[in-house]
C-alpha cells in the first residue's frame, strides 16, 4: 500500500494524444487533396499544405516525407471508400462467400463507383506529374504495380466462376483495365455519366468479359 500522504500516480493515457495525431494527419491529407485539386502537383508546396492544415512544414515532412508521400497517403485513403469498412475488405468478403458470380461482379462494380471519385483524381494527378518528376514517376509505377497485384488477387478469388478457357492472368488484365482512372475519366468526368450509369457499365462489361 502507498505511504500515507503519497499520491498514487495515475497510469498514462495516450489515447487522447493518438487521437489528436490522427486528426492532424487527416487535416494534412485533406489539405493536400484540396491543394492538388486546385492547382496541380507541381504548383503545390509542402509549405502550402502545412499552412492550410495548421501545422509546420517540418511536421509534414516528418510524417509523409514530402509531396510523393502526401500523394501516397491520398491514394490509400481513397481506396478505403466511403463505407464503414475499407472497400478492399468488403470486396474480399463478398468474393469469398458469394455463390453467384453476378453477386460478386455487381458488388465490385458498386465498390468501383464508390472508390473511383476519390481514387481516379489521384491516379490522374500522378500520371500527369510523372512525365516531369522522377519521384512521381517512381510513385506511379509503385501504385500501378500495387493495383495490378490487387486485381490478380481478385481474379484468383473468382477463378471458379470464370468462363472456360479464360486464365486468371487475362481476368486480371480485364479487371485492371476496367477499374483504372481512364474509364472513369472518359465516362464520368468528360461525358457526364452518373455514378449509377458508370457502375452499371462496369458490371455489364465484367459480366461479358469474365463469365460464360
What is the 3D form?
Answer: globular
Secondary structure: helix percent: over 70%
Helix and strand content put the structural class at: mainly alpha
Mean of all residue-level pLDDT scores: 93
The CATH C-level name of the largest domain is Mainly Alpha
CATH topology of the largest domain: Tetracycline Repressor, domain 2
Largest sheet composition: none
> Which stretches are poorly predicted, pLDDT < 50 over at least 5 residues?
none
Annotation keywords:
212 residues; mainly alpha; Arc Repressor Mutant, subunit A; Tetracycline Repressor, domain 2; 2 domains; 10 helices; 75% helix; globular
Briefly summarize what is shown.
75% of the residues lie in helices and 0% in strands.
Helix-strand layout with pairing:
Elements lengths: L14 H29 L2 H8 L3 H8 L2 H13 L7 H11 L3 H30 L3 H24 L10 H11 L2 H10 L4 H16 L2
Explained architecture:
With 212 residues, this protein is an all-alpha fold. It folds into two domains: 51 residues, Orthogonal Bundle (Arc Repressor Mutant, subunit A); 144 residues, Tetracycline Repressor, domain 2, CATH 1.10.357. The protein is 75% helix and 0% strand. The protein contains ten helices and no strands. Helix 7 packs across helix 8. The longest helix is centred in the middle third of the chain and has 30 residues. It starts with 14 loop residues before the first helix and ends with a helix. The model has no long low-confidence stretch (mean pLDDT 93).
